[in-house]
């Protein structure tokens, strides 16, 4: 089963033939998105020039895939993942460490929620985002990219 990240969803919604072909070839395995990705897609639609049209495209896309929500187990995995990233990537000096944020380490909060969702449901995360490659250094996140 696959959990699609925002960059791949955007390509599917735009009918990128290469990405759509790969998705069709992997139809035997269900695909889904995190509620976080859904929010990112809606945000992209809201800031676009064609809000109504883009919202409809997203709605049509969502109708065809599974939607994974955040629950208590996702929260636990998120917190463990965040601690692991700080332990691995943050400076060891206590003073510098206190001033370090997740963003300073090069990670976005949304990416951690998406990764936690993939880990919780044992899904292969499909993303072209290099943050997830770095996340693999601290956990067993399965990752693929369909964007050449």
Q: What is the tally of helical segments?
A: 8
Output the CATH class name. Alpha Beta
Instruction: Enter the CATH topology name.
Output: Rossmann fold
Note the main sheet. 5 strands, parallel
Order of secondary-structure elements: EHHEHHEHHHEHE
CA(first)-CA(last) distance: 21 Å
> Globular, elongated, flat, extended or rod-shaped: what is the shape?
globular
- The structure class reads alpha/beta
Low-pLDDT residue spans = none
CATH architecture level-2 label = 3-Layer(aba) Sandwich
Write down the Rg.
Answer: 16 Å
Instruction: Tell me the strand order in the biggest sheet.
Output: 3-2-1-4-5
- What is the helix fraction of residues, given as a range? 55-70%
Strand content: 5-15%
How much is the average pLDDT?
Answer: 94
Tell me the number of structural domains. Answer: 1
Number of strands: 5
3D architecture notes:
The protein is of the alpha/beta class and 148 residues long. It has a single domain, classed as 3-Layer(aba) Sandwich (Rossmann fold), CATH 3.40.50.1010. Helices cover 55% and strands 10% of the residues. It has a 5-stranded parallel β-sheet. Helix 3 packs antiparallel against helix 4. The two termini are 21 Å apart. The model has no long low-confidence stretch (mean pLDDT 94).
Summary tags:
148 residues; alpha/beta; Rossmann fold; five-stranded parallel sheet; 55% helix; 10% strand
């Amino acid at each position: 089963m696959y959990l699609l990240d925002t960059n791949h969803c955007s390509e599917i919604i735009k009918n990128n033939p290469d990405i759509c072909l790969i998705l069709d070839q992997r139809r035997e395995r269900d695909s889904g998105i995190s509620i976080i990705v859904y929010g990112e897609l809606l945000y992209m639609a809201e800031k676009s020039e064609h809000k109504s049209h883009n919202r409809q495209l997203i709605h049509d896309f969502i109708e065809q895939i599974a939607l994974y929500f955040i629950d208590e187990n996702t929260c636990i995995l998120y917190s463990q993942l965040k601690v692991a990233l700080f332990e691995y990537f943050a400076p060891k000096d206590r003073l510098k460490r206190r001033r370090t944020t997740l963003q300073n380490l090069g990670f976005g909060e949304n990416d951690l929620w998406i990764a936690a969702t993939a880990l919780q449901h044992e899904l292969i995360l499909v993303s072209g985002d290099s943050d997830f490659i770095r996340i693999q250094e601290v956990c067993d996140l399965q990752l693929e990219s369909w964007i050449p």
